[in-house]
Design a protein that fits this description.
- This protein is mainly β.
- Helices cover 10% and strands 36% of the residues.
- It is built from 16 helices and 92 strands.
- Strands 80, 81, 82, 83, 84, 85, 86, 87, 88, 89, 90, 91 and 92 form a 13-stranded antiparallel β-sheet that branches.
- The N and C termini lie far apart (138 Å).
Length: 1530
């Protein structure tokens, strides 16, 4: 017992110890009885008895508590009989929760010196909590602070050590003399309880400031006859430190020996007296040094220089009549700014002179009036000191004022006024930030609750002592008036009320200066006192049995099952849940705080169908239990299982086995009854095998077609994957796979074929012999394959049989060959296998005769044409030097050089290969390059010949490439396209260019075929991509070019002997060939040319390749049309251009026209919108799709929108079937404008009118598969089509055809995927109204009466009479001047511009009317011939206008009276030989959109050049790509 109590007794009186010991012995003796009454049985040990668990937790039966805590006794070997304890849960039980208490709060008096660095130790707080550390006895310390308050101290939350986090300054201007802080101690009990302590920390002064003089320098005067002991002047210094650190001692020393002993200073006041009679003459200056030293432990000092001037005796210094050191006492609330505080009177001391000047000297500290707290006013010889600012005792309690007076001789005197500020009670006590306290329920009266603290900011104890009183709840609580400690007056029950709001008054100890009734200052604060809970109620489940129905057996781990809930009236205890029984295989887990039960491991209905769990809710003292029944639901979580079967089957190839090859059976493990229907569905997995094999519902695997054993498409063994789905293949079915291996026995059904590397080379001039050993291969098995027999086939020509033979497996040459006679031989060889029956196949062996250099070369000439893209081509190999030589493998025997060693500056030559390289920077021109080629070989002596290469370089602008048309040809290589035809006929390149010029009705020189290459996106070298452009002044747009080629496709194919596979090259046209989803074409242009080499002709073109990009839209740079100006990411447009990029957004049609625009990209999801104002009930709004049938490519996709009886009708075909979408709710021909939206994707096609959302407006369908995208490369045609759609529909087998009626009305705001079309400027058009500006005529009927009709007829008759009179008058007037016809009058109105850029309106054209003889001389005196020229020839013959104009030029040049300027004006023209260049300058300074030169097309063939340059339409009056017109320019 002594040992147990030893540590407990420390610090307590012996009376307490004896009382506690007695209590312990009593409880020890009664422990067994106490516990048995609670339901426990305690068998004793022979040596023991009871065991004391912890002295602080002993509990008496009445529930009262000792002063030292609650006690609990637990007997050893105890067995649980109730729900309070189990044999597996012997733990500490705490029934009471004590709050922490600051036992020495009022005794804390910490100090810290100013200027100490951060993290300086201040003191340690300590609170005591009688609970065990793990159950409420662990204390955490924090500061109580206001929101946003910057803390000046830090506290260790565990130890309570407080340190500075701020460097304090006690002196001016901060004046941090004391700091209040409130510490909260919080325990870890439930609920958490706390206590608070407010502590004042004193900031101690250190001597860290030196004295400061109130002036920077002192200069005074002294009369020569000044009496001894008389004051000369005074100095003043202040120290803002506190105590001895602020006491200043003065010292005065002369700076020169002659001044020694004359002056004496009072060490305490700083007054300087005359100590010796002045024997210096006036003008002498006493130079002194004054020192002020404080009295701190380590002295600080300051020094200043003084100068005192000796003046004449009659010059007396003024003096104050009142003694120095006047003291005035003012209360801090004194605020009379008009009444003088002190009055000082001075006398001049100079007879007849009374003018004096007073000054209130401002020092350098607030105590010496640096803040102008006091001011000085003068009235004659008096100085009045008045209040200039408010006083505050807590800031400054004393001021030292220095008043100075001087006369006109600058002689001065000073005096001091000491202002002492008295404290008044002008501050109301303010409570600290602690607003909450707590006390446990069931605690006895007198239990501490909290301590409140109020601070009174007054500076003296007479005013700042605070007493506390309660304003309410005085029957429940009491407060210590001095300390602010609140304690209880009774025992509380939290379930009755859990908090009280208690108001506390804090009153200071003297009458307030703020009130006039003599009352004290009182502050008040309401505090919330919470009644803390004790764990005195058990938890109770809301249900005794919880049932969770249908938990799927395939539930995911951690998926929720159900939630149990136990209620506990206590708030101090946390209820924790656990599963104590029934949790087989840990199938479930319960969240200990929420009671949510979740799946913990995989469930299996086939093993366990129900679980019954026992769950417990424990609050740390008592617990409750409940049952949870969880029912598992069977789900389809087991795939089918195949029964054993024969997996290896052998059948014969190319035959169909009748019936079943094999029968498979599978069952569903989820169906317990194996005899029940298993609902199994079988199918063949591999798609390529589904056309050959099938399996029935009962598992019978049978053949649809024979299986092939032999390559390339057959296999000797076929692995057939069979899948079985349960639940008849429903959405939740599971699948299992198995295999059947089918071995095929071979039959001889394949003929052998040659298996050799070809061609076989056999040199010319070689003696007859074995050419090669023949090798063959047979796809059949070895039994039906080798050995093979070879022979020359009977289809061989006599030439073959005479020159070749076969002996065994060897091909032999019977003669010697000459490569110059024939380069290749195609030998048909018949091969027979050894099968039964034997099969024979014929293969062709190519034998190439190898070249031997046995022919001398001859001079050669070749031509190279180079298109230089934007003039930026780098150094480029453009072709080899050509010489005529029958040998073609002799390049190594030749050496190339520049003729006569003269190298061209624009080209380089490879001397070994003859390759010519064009250098960067070579411009438009033709170059004739001359070379010498030297050859030497064993059979050829050394010899040299000349060779010339004509290189033509033409720069092609970027606009030509951007606006180019394109075709993809089939069945031709680039070399074949460039190589000249036989016998000097034009190449296919030249034929194609000439054909384009004819069908486009432009001059040949205005057509460029600049790209000839094999696309890198196609491995087939028989596909050739060709790009071309045509221009007058502007370049024709690609839609116009491609349409012209499409309409003449048959004639072009016939003339060139090729197939036009694709017009307008589109890598996205074949669905999913380049992209799985959206696909857009992008024209990639490179300044690195693409070259095609042939012997005599080489072509170097622009490398322009169409690349597929797997996106719906390709970002394009901002280009503002029609004179718009870019502003950031938008365009600022001129009036009339409404599109986002200044497009013209409208176009009108009259019912017979059409317009072409760029096509639509292939997008996964796309949207087309437009606005319609139709004027006819029927008509085609737009069509995009094929222009002409193309059975080779077989792409049928199209889309069209038409007006059908006034309603919108959409046709769409993805290439696998046409669907129709109609909208019959809103009629479009009501005279209003309507918005139409078309949306299409892989799965839907939707048509909306005016964004109608009603169900009756819904026009939605699905596309007809299997195709998923709209892939078109034809132009988007508005208003009608350039072709007859019936012809296209007949070849495409469309199930629904677009209408052929043209549209009449206006179309506006056409956008595709948010890209606005420039409708006002189509690529090509016929009979359109751009921007709908001219309107479309409509028939309007209205009613009129007979009188109105008569009036109209009379008006019309009068107008006809007036018109007839005017015509007659004009005819007579014309006859008067018929003989004086003036040509220039007819010309004057023409806008013209010519040589020298001078505008002319007056010139004589009579020279053009002259006739000339054969020598170019004019034929005078004869009438002009009006008939056509004799010998003009056929109507379509091109006249020699060059000669005609040249003859007229010579005549005018010889005429001295002709103005040369006009002569140049007459003969400026565009064409061959014209040195003035192109007339394209006519467009300078104007916008193409502002001018319309289409009328030039009606002037006849002689103006075709101008019509091509400036007119959008062809020069023929009627557009017809099939009727070319002849050119008539030279």
């Amino acid at each position: 017992m002594v040992i147990i109590m030893k540590g407990f007794c420390r610090g307590h009186t012996w009376r307490h110890i004896l009382w506690t010991t007695a209590l312990f012995m009593f409880l020890l003796a009664k422990a067994d009885d106490v516990l048995q009454q609670d339901g426990y049985h305690h068998p004793r040990r022979s040596h023991g008895g009871a065991r004391l668990r912890h002295l602080r937790h002993l509990v008496d039966r009445s529930g009262s508590h000792s002063a030292y805590g609650n006690l609990e006794v637990d007997a050893l070997e105890s067995q649980p009989k109730t729900t309070q304890l189990t044999n597996t849960e012997k733990r500490l039980i705490v029934q009471d929760n004590h709050k922490p208490v600051f036992t020495n709060c009022s005794q804390y008096a910490p100090t810290v010196k100013e200027e100490e660095p951060s993290d300086t130790y201040v003191f340690t707080v300590k609170a005591v909590d009688k609970d065990p550390p793990e159950a409420g006895g662990t204390i955490t310390y924090t500061f109580v602070s206001a929101p946003g308050e910057r803390l000046k101290f830090s506290i260790d939350p565990e130890s309570g050590v407080i340190k500075t986090r701020h460097m304090f300054d006690r002196d001016e201007p901060t004046r941090e003399k004391e700091v209040y802080l409130t510490v909260r101690a919080t325990d870890n009990g439930r609920p958490q309880l706390d206590d608070a302590c407010t502590i004042k920390v004193i900031i101690e002064d250190i001597n860290d400031n030196p004295p400061v003089f109130d002036k920077v320098s002192y200069r005074e005067s002294v009369p020569q006859d000044q009496r001894l002991g008389k004051e000369v002047m005074r100095i003043s210094a202040t120290d803002i430190d506190d105590g001895n650190n602020s006491i200043v001692i003065y010292k005065l020393e002369p700076k020169q020996d002659v001044d020694e002993g004359y002056l004496l200073i009072d060490a305490n006041t700083g007054v300087i007296f005359l100590n010796r009679t002045i024997d210096h003459s006036p003008g002498h200056v006493f130079r002194m040094r004054a020192t002020a030293t404080d009295q701190g432990p380590e002295h600080n000092m300051a020094s200043i220089d003084l100068e005192i001037l000796v003046v004449d005796s009659q010059k007396k210094a003024p003096s104050f009549s009142s003694p120095s050191g006047l003291t005035v006492q003012l209360k801090e609330n004194y605020n009379d700014f008009s009444t003088p505080i002190a009055t000082l009177t001075a006398v001049s001391n100079i007879p007849g002179e009374s003018d004096l000047q007073f000054e209130l000297v401002s020092g350098r500290t607030q105590q010496t009036n640096s803040q102008k707290t006091f001011i000085l006013e003068t009235v004659g010889p008096k100085a009045l000191v008045k209040l200039g600012g408010f006083l505050d005792y807590e800031s400054i309690s004393e001021y030292m004022l220095t008043v100075r007076v001087q006369n006109k001789y600058n002689l001065a005197a000073t005096t001091t006024v000491n202002i002492q500020v008295e404290d008044v009670n002008d501050n109301i006590p303010a409570f600290t930030e602690v607003l909450r306290g707590s006390v446990l329920e069931n605690e006895p009266p007198g239990t501490p609750v909290m301590q409140v603290r109020a601070i009174d900011a007054d500076g003296t104890e007479a005013n700042n002592q605070v007493t506390y009183t309660l304003a309410d709840h005085t029957d429940l609580f009491t407060i210590d008036s001095k300390t602010g400690n609140i304690t209880t007056l009774r025992t509380f029950d939290r379930e009755e009320k859990d908090f009280y709001n208690v108001k506390v008054y804090a009153t200071d100890n003297s009458p307030s200066s703020l009130y006039s009734d003599g009352s004290h200052n009182t502050g008040q604060q309401v505090f919330r006192i919470e009644i803390a809970d004790k764990n005195d109620n058990p938890p109770r489940f809301t249900q005794k049995i919880y049932i969770a129905e249908a938990i799927p057996e395939d539930s995911n781990i951690n998926s929720p099952v159900t939630e149990v809930k136990a209620l506990d009236n206590d708030t101090a205890s946390t209820v924790k849940y656990s599963i104590v029984d029934g949790n087989t295989n840990d199938a479930f887990v319960i969240e200990d705080l929420t009671g949510k039960i979740r799946v913990n491991s995989k469930l299996d209905y086939e093993n366990i169908t129900n679980y019954t769990l026992t769950v417990k809710a424990d609050d740390g003292n008592v617990h409750d239990v409940a049952k949870v029944v969880i029912k598992i639901e069977n789900v389809n979580d087991n795939p089918p299982v195949f029964l054993p079967y024969n997996k290896n089957i052998t059948i014969q190839e190319e035959e169909i086995v009748p019936g079943c090859i094999v029968t498979l059976q599978a069952y569903d493990p989820d169906i317990q009854d194996r005899m029940a229907e298993q609902h199994i569905e079988y199918f063949v997995v591999k798609e390529d095998q589904q056309m050959l094999l099938q399996i029935s519902k009962n598992g019978c695997l049978s053949q649809i077609k024979p299986l092939d054993r032999d390559p390339p498409n057959g296999f000797s063994k076929w692995q057939v994957l069979i899948a079985a789905n349960d639940e008849d293949g429903g959405p939740t079915s599971l699948r299992n796979n198995t295999e059947v291996v089918i071995t095929l026995t071979d039959i001889n059904d394949n003929a052998p074929f040659l298996d050799m590397i070809q061609p076989v080379k056999w040199d010319e001039n070689q003696q007859p012999g074995i050419v090669v050993q023949l090798n063959a291969r047979d796809y059949d098995s070895e039994q039906n394959g080798p050995p093979f027999t070879f022979r020359i086939a009977g289809t061989a020509t006599d030439d073959i049989t005479n020159k070749f033979s076969i002996t065994g497996e060897n091909l032999e040459a019977l003669v010697s060959f000459d490569r110059e006679d024939q380069k290749k031989y195609m030998i048909p060889i018949a091969i027979s296998d050894s099968g039964v029956p034997s099969m024979t196949g014929t293969s062709t062996l190519t034998v190439e005769i190898g070249d031997v250099n046995d022919n001398r070369m001859k001079e050669g000439h070749s031509s190279i044409f180079v298109y230089n893209y934007k003039g930026e081509a780098p150094n480029t190999e453009i072709g080899r030097v050509y010489v005529e030589d029958p040998d073609d493998w002799d390049l190594g025997d030749k050496h190339f050089s520049w003729k006569d060693g003269v190298q061209h500056q624009n080209f380089e030559l490879n001397y070994d290969t003859g390759m010519v390289t064009m250098l960067h920077g070579t411009t438009n021109n033709s170059f004739l390059l001359k070379f010498t080629v030297t050859e030497e070989a064993p059979q050829i002596p050394r010899h040299s010949v000349d060779a010339t290469v004509n290189v033509t370089v033409k720069e092609i602008p970027e606009e030509a490439v951007d606006k180019s048309g394109s075709v993809r040809m089939f069945g031709i290589t680039a070399e074949e396209f460039i190589r000249p035809g036989p016998y000097g006929t034009p190449s296919k390149h030249e034929l194609f260019r000439a054909r384009l010029a004819r069908i486009l009705n432009v001059s040949l020189e205005n057509v460029d075929v600049f790209t000839v290459l094999h696309s890198p996106h196609n491995s087939n070298t028989s596909l050739l991509d060709v790009r071309f452009s045509a221009h007058g002044s502007p370049y024709r747009r690609p839609e116009k070019l491609n349409a012209a080629v499409a309409l003449n496709k048959a004639s072009i194919e016939q003339e060139l002997g090729v197939t036009l596979l694709m017009i307008n090259i589109d890598e996205c046209l074949i669905e999913k060939a380049s992209c799985e989803s959206s696909c857009t074409n992008f024209l990639s242009k490179s300044n690195t040319p693409s070259a095609v080499y042939t012997n005599t002709t080489s072509f170097v073109g622009v490398q322009a390749v169409v690349d597929p990009m797997c996106t719906c839209t390709v970002p394009a740079p901002l280009v503002c049309l029609n004179g718009g100006t870019p502003v950031g990411t938008t365009c600022e447009c001129m009036e009339g251009f409404e599109g986002p990029r200044c497009e013209i957004i409208g176009i009108g049609f009259y019912g017979s026209g059409w317009a072409l625009y760029p096509t639509i990209a292939a997008c996964d999801e796309a949207r087309l919108t437009l606005e319609l104002a139709p004027h006819k009930e029927d008509g085609l709004v737009f069509y995009v799709g094929p222009l002409v049938p193309n059975p080779t490519l077989d792409v049928r996709d199209f889309m069209s929108l038409e007006i059908d009886r006034g309603y919108a009708r959409l046709l769409m075909d993805y290439g696998s079937g046409t669907v129709s979408v109609e909208q019959r709710q809103i009629k479009l021909t009501d005279g209003k404008s309507h918005k139409v939206d078309i949306l299409w994707s892989r799965t839907s096609i939707e048509l909306k009118v005016d964004n109608c959302q009603m169900s009756s407006c819904l026009s939605l369908t699905t596309p007809q598969g299997p195709n998923e995208f709209l892939n078109v490369n034809g132009p988007l045609q508005l208003g009608g089509t350039v072709v007859n759609l019936n012809d296209v529909a007949n070849s495409m087998n469309w199930t629904r055809r677009p209408t052929t009626q043209n549209f009449a009305g206006c179309i506006r705001n056409l956008t595709v995927n948010d890209k606005t079309y420039n409708l006002g400027e189509p690529s090509d058009s016929k009979e359109v109204d751009p921007d709908c500006s001219r309107g479309v005529a409509r028939a309007v009927s209205f009613g009129i009466n007979t009188n109105f009709l008569v009036a109209i007829l009379v008006c019309i008759a009068i107008l006809l009479i007036l018109l007839l009179a005017v015509v007659v008058h004009r005819r007579r007037t014309d006859d008067l001047y018929k003989d004086t016809d003036d040509i220039r009058e007819n010309i004057i109105n023409y806008e013209d511009e010519g040589g020298g850029e001078g505008d002319m309106t007056g010139y004589d054209l009579n020279v053009l009317r002259l006739m000339y003889d054969s020598n170019g001389q004019p034929i005078l005196g004869k009438e002009l011939v009006k008939a056509p020229f004799v010998g003009r020839g056929a109507p379509d013959e091109v006249p020699d206008i060059c000669g005609f104009l040249d003859g007229k030029k010579k005549v005018c040049d010889n005429d001295p009276e002709t103005n040369p300027f006009d002569d140049v004006r007459h003969y400026a023209y565009e064409g061959d030989g014209n040195t003035t260049g192109s007339l394209s300058s006519l467009a300078s300074g104007t916008d193409e959109g502002d001018l319309n030169f289409d009328y030039l097309s009606n002037f006849g063939p002689r103006f075709r050049k101008l019509a091509d340059m400036y007119g959008e339409d062809p020069s023929d009056e009627d557009e017809n790509f099939n009727t070319p017109a002849s050119e008539s320019w030279c």
